[in-house]
């Protein structure tokens, strides 16, 4: 079903809103994608404010240089990633590859850097190469997720928050030097102290951390309450069973590269993770990538995922408009 075009919502651009898909804007005859982005920057931001996310099709973005020019035109104060959980390649300041994650494994719904005290207000994606099958960057509206989750589960997470535990080593995941952008332990300790992260250096030179964060926030622009976290994505039960069993066997339960718990430290059971992921699925919007596509996502209003895929896939990412958790009326202590 195609909704009637609201020229105000689409700010005069050729847009449409179809059931089960994000808002889509079609363009044609664009000779310079960065120039088009500069001219339509305000209109695109208006569409994101109305719909939470928008896919722009027809820009013809062909390479990393062109993608970087578009992304840096559309967002200010691009963020350098900290506390990364998977490797990325850096193309230029603030412009990265997608997280390197096995193609046959989904990256479940999450809000980027929602475990940090500062996170991007907007995610920007540019597709240089589309996969032959799958691989969509799908989105889910976090207010709808919050409303659909069991009330008692929401109440507990509002009261306690959620706890992220991580174990860094040189064999799995991202080493601490890459996650924190330094090889100096003192700098890591300083960062942790400033960001509400408890830490422990292990005998083999590894690092274990934990941090408690709010699971529900309010959007600083309009106060809408949002389910905002990575509780399900970074939980052990979202891993493929054979991966989880291997990691527990080799590294032990406390040595998993990441895991999430209730804010009081109690285990989040597999059935709870399934409830959260099924709730995301019930309100998911998706549109397959085409080479040259651009996508803007309000990182607070919309969770995003990366679906399994076949074939080559190259999607560049930028994170703009930093937002502080303290400015989002968090419902649980920050640490």
Automatic annotation (TrEMBL):
GO terms for molecular function: dioxygenase activity. Coiled coil: none annotated. Keywords: Antibiotic biosynthesis, Dioxygenase, Iron, Oxidoreductase. Transmembrane segments: none annotated. It comes from the Bacteria. InterPro entries: AlphaKG_dependent_hydroxylases (IPR050411), TauD-like_sf (IPR042098), TauD/TfdA-like (IPR003819). Its cofactor is Fe(2+). Residues 33-318 form the TauD/TfdA-like domain. This is TauD/TfdA family dioxygenase. It comes from Allokutzneria oryzae.
């Amino acid at each position: 079903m195609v909704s009637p075009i609201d020229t105000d919502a689409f700010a005069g651009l050729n847009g449409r809103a179809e059931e089960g898909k994000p808002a889509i804007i079609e363009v044609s005859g664009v000779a310079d994608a960065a120039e088009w982005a500069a001219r339509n920057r305000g209109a695109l931001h208006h569409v994101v404010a109305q719909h939470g996310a928008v896919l722009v099709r027809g820009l013809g973005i062909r390479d990393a240089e062109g993608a970087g020019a578009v992304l840096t035109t559309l967002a200010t104060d691009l963020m350098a990633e900290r506390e990364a959980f998977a490797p990325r390649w850096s193309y230029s300041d603030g412009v990265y590859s997608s997280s390197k994650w096995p193609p046959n494994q989904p990256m479940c719904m999450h809000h980027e850097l929602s475990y940090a005290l500062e996170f991007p207000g907007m995610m920007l994606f540019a597709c240089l190469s589309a996969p032959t099958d799958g691989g969509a960057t799908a989105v889910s509206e976090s207010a709808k997720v919050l409303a659909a989750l069991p009330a008692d589960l929401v109440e507990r997470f509002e009261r306690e928050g959620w706890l992220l535990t991580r174990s860094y080593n040189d064999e799995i995941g991202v080493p601490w030097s890459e996650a924190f952008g330094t090889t100096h332990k003192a700098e890591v300790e300083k960062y942790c102290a400033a960001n509400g992260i408890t830490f422990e250096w292990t005998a083999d030179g590894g690092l274990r951390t934990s941090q408690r964060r709010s699971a529900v926030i309010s959007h600083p622009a309009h106060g809408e309450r949002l389910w905002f976290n990575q509780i399900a994505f970074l939980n052990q039960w979202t891993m493929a069973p054979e991966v989880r069993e291997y990691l527990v066997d080799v590294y032990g339960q406390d040595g998993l590269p990441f895991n999430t718990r209730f804010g009081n430290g109690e285990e989040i059971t597999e059935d709870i993770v399934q409830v959260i992921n099924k709730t995301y699925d019930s309100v998911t919007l998706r549109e397959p990538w085409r080479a040259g596509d651009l996508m803007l996502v309000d990182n607070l209003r919309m969770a995003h995922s990366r679906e399994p895929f076949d074939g080559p896939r190259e999607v560049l990412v930028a994170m703009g408009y930093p937002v502080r958790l303290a400015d989002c009326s968090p419902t649980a202590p920050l640490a």
